[in-house]
Amino acid sequence: MNYLSADQVIEKLKEGNQKYINQMCTIGDTSIQKRVQTYIKGQHPYAIIVTCSDSRVIPESIFNAGIGDLFVIRLAGNVIDDHQLGSIEYAAGHLDCHLIVVLGHTHCGAVDAAMNGNPDGYIKFITDEIKKAIGNESDEKKACIKNVIYCVKEIEQSLEIQHYECDQGLKVIPALYDIETGMVEFL
C-alpha cells in the first residue's frame, strides 16, 4: 500500500523533477524485478497525474518515476470529462493515491486552438471546454494556468473526491510544465 501523505508526494515529485532537469536521461525503475513485483502485488502509484496528450509531456520522465509509480491520465488540453473523472475516482479510491496533479504545459496546442481557432469535428468538444476555463485570456501562459486551475475545480466537484479529501487527506493541485526548461511549477 501507499503510505505517503499528499505533502510527501509533492516533495517526491519535486525531487524527481529536479533530477530530470539535471540529468541527460531518467532513471525511474523499469527493471524486470519491478515489473514482476507490480504483476504479483498490483499497482500502488503514489500520484495521479492528469495531463495533456502532447508528445513532449512525459510524466514518468518529468518526475523521474518508474513502473507503478504514477497513474497517468492523458487527454489533449488535460480537460476533464466523465471518463477522466471515473479514472481519477478509481485511482483515488482503489489505489490509495493521496495526490492528484493536473499538469498543464506551456505552448499547449489545445489551449492555442481554443484561443485562436474555431476548430471543427470532435476537437471542438475539447476547445469549448478550454474556452470555459480561460475566458478571454490572451496571454498563452496565463491561459494554460487558468485551464489547469479550472480542471482542478472540475475534479473537486466530484463527491467521491470531496470524500477522499476530507477522510484520507487527498489533495488536488494544479501545476505547469515548461516544455523548454523542463521545470514544473506547482501552483
TrEMBL record:
One of its GO terms (biological process) is carbon utilization. PROSITE patterns: PROK_CO2_ANHYDRASE_1 (PS00704). Its cofactor is Zn(2+). Its EC number is 4.2.1.1. InterPro entries: Carbonic_anhydrase (IPR001765), Carbonic_anhydrase_CS (IPR015892), Carbonic_anhydrase_sf (IPR036874). Gene3D superfamilies: Carbonic anhydrase (3.40.1050.10). GO terms for molecular function: carbonate dehydratase activity; zinc ion binding. It comes from the Bacteria. It holds the Pfam family Pro_CA. It is an enzyme of class 4 (lyase). Binds 1 zinc ion per subunit. Belongs to the beta-class carbonic anhydrase family. This is carbonic anhydrase. It comes from Floccifex porci. The lineage of its organism: Bacteria, Bacillati, Bacillota, Erysipelotrichia, Erysipelotrichales.
